[in-house]
Design brief:
Length: about 120
């Protein structure tokens, strides 16, 4: 099945929970120029099966497999989680570099160990 994309596709829901948003983004992203995660933190997650490998992610946008991806201003980033996800993706053959993964300079960073 192919999807012709024009304009903007927003994937969201009216409630919090496990509703499959990550899977929908993964499905739509092969034809996208940019995919972004616009809010939230690493307390929730999404599971995507890409080319037979299961990826359980908490911060990385599901679009990272196909399109340029961005963590936008309202995302709350735990650096340890983000680094672990980037390393896992790279170990499994997924390119993550400054050309295809952008981080807003205005994201919120969790500073662990600060009293």
């Amino acid at each position: 099945m192919s999807v012709e994309m024009r304009g903007v596709h927003l994937v969201g829901d009216a409630v919090w929970g496990d509703n499959g948003k990550g899977k929908v983004v993964h499905y739509l992203s092969p034809n996208a120029k940019l995919g972004l995660r616009w809010s939230g933190g690493d307390n929730a997650g999404h599971t995507v099966v890409h080319e037979g490998t299961t990826f359980k992610m908490h911060l990385m946008p599901s679009s990272i497999f196909h399109a340029r991806s961005l963590l936008a201003d309202n995302v709350v980033v735990n650096p340890q989680t983000l680094i672990a996800e980037i390393n896992f993706l790279r170990r499994n053959g997924i390119t993550v570099n400054p050309e295809n993964f952008l981080i807003s300079p205005d994201i919120h960073i969790i500073c662990l160990g600060i009293n």
